[in-house]
């Protein structure tokens, strides 16, 4: 399971560390918005879990999917103009922040490309509630297990590519290898566990999809981001100036993303099966079997509304790593240029 590329990530640039942005009431004498609002970073303090949670509740808002192309372009113009020192007439601070989050919700922070609709972080809840709900509902027969695991990994492949860190290109061959490997791993895990649990209580079988998703995340994410493991991801100083590329930082970032994705899946794939196992024994649902799938999808959606932003907030988007942990060559280069620097920063992706 797995933003918008832009919305899902804090950007690497910025002359301030993550201290959050307090609303400003004062404006210039001409009535224009001041130019010292740091929209390179999220509005809320990213050094705290609560601040990160507020940030991700905003960027995973499914309503962002309803915005038109014209609205996205208008928000991009507002943000880019403001960064260039040009304030849109009549713009308020709340409107600026709204434009920033709309812009981030649709455009990759490193490449500037518009992210495909289902790859955006705002698509996480509606897409995952449908796919996960169906995986949990149709887990008994082999053809449906294979089909929904394939659908899930196809969706994950799009999301993982859309939310990669850095701007290093990835070839079609690499994408294909990652996609096939992750899908094969997920299907093999699901079918293997389905066979092993067929003589166990029915409730145990309901957790097979979660085990398959967890295993697939461990395969899919590193493979879809293998380019980062080969050439590294950009590391910067506190002001956002690039210092080089680090494979060590890429490994740390990908590990954090895998943990977040697995934790994100736990509530949606652990709570509904227990509830449904109890409800399906009741006469009401026995007489209305058709209610099973929509009810399961609804339960998954309710869990994901909270699990998605909260699990994205487990680790700072703009993560840090001590210089002493970097590759020897990069460490020497940084110490030569900045002898007193102890910590560098990178965008971990989502």
Automatic annotation (TrEMBL):
<keyword id="KW-0029">Amino-acid transport</keyword>
<feature type="compositionally biased region" description="Basic and acidic residues">
    <location>
        <begin position="19"/>
        <end position="30"/>
    </location>
</feature>
<dbReference type="GO" id="GO:0006730">
    <property type="term" value="P:one-carbon metabolic process"/>
</dbReference>
<dbReference type="Pfam" id="PF03820">
    <property type="entry name" value="SFXNs"/>
</dbReference>
<feature type="transmembrane region" description="Helical">
    <location>
        <begin position="295"/>
        <end position="315"/>
    </location>
</feature>
<feature type="transmembrane region" description="Helical">
    <location>
        <begin position="254"/>
        <end position="275"/>
    </location>
</feature>
<dbReference type="GO" id="GO:0005743">
    <property type="term" value="C:mitochondrial inner membrane"/>
</dbReference>
<keyword id="KW-0812">Transmembrane</keyword>
<feature type="region of interest" description="Disordered">
    <location>
        <begin position="1"/>
        <end position="33"/>
    </location>
</feature>
<keyword id="KW-0813">Transport</keyword>
<keyword id="KW-0554">One-carbon metabolism</keyword>
<dbReference type="GO" id="GO:0140300">
    <property type="term" value="P:serine import into mitochondrion"/>
</dbReference>
<dbReference type="GO" id="GO:0015075">
    <property type="term" value="F:monoatomic ion transmembrane transporter activity"/>
</dbReference>
<keyword id="KW-1133">Transmembrane helix</keyword>
<dbReference type="InterPro" id="IPR004686">
    <property type="entry name" value="Mtc"/>
</dbReference>
<dbReference type="GO" id="GO:0015194">
    <property type="term" value="F:L-serine transmembrane transporter activity"/>
</dbReference>
<comment type="function">
    <text>Mitochondrial serine transporter that mediates transport of serine into mitochondria, an important step of the one-carbon metabolism pathway. Mitochondrial serine is converted to glycine and formate, which then exits to the cytosol where it is used to generate the charged folates that serve as one-carbon donors.</text>
</comment>
<protein>
    <recommendedName>
        <fullName>Sidoreflexin</fullName>
    </recommendedName>
</protein>
<comment type="similarity">
    <text>Belongs to the sideroflexin family.</text>
</comment>
<keyword id="KW-0496">Mitochondrion</keyword>
<keyword id="KW-0472">Membrane</keyword>
